[in-house]
Specification:
Layout lengths: L1 E8 L4 H16 L5 E8 L6 E9 L3 H10 L1 H5 L2 E9 L13
Antiparallel strand pairs: 1-3, 1-4, 2-3
């Protein structure tokens, strides 16, 4: 089952986000074969990171929540709010994804 992680940064987290980003990317890389998509949420300027949106296949919700609890941005206190939802992808992607 794919789980969507909608994660919003707490105010003033930009410095922590930049400092912890290498660990975050390494942690994500461990799931590379199971990631449908992943990336930062951006402010209207298209540059400022304000959160993360991830879609990752996990066997169940408990596994997804355990993964999130160990995620470096979570552990560093970057996120002010998080939501995790099961997701059924029923529409073939046409926009925003590079060709395979």
């Amino acid at each position: 089952m794919i789980y969507i992680f909608h994660l919003l940064d707490r105010p003033g987290a930009a410095e922590i986000r930049q400092r912890v980003r290498p660990q975050h990317k390494a942690y994500l890389a461990q799931q590379a074969e199971r990631i449908a998509f992943a990336g930062p949420l951006l402010a209207d300027d298209g540059q400022t990171m304000v959160g993360s949106l991830l879609a990752i296949d996990f066997p169940d919700r408990d596994a997804a929540l355990r993964w999130l609890a160990e995620e470096p941005f979570t552990q560093a206190g970057v996120y002010a709010a998080s939501a995790v939802h099961a997701f059924a992808n029923l529409w073939p992607q046409k926009v925003g994804f590079p060709p395979a």
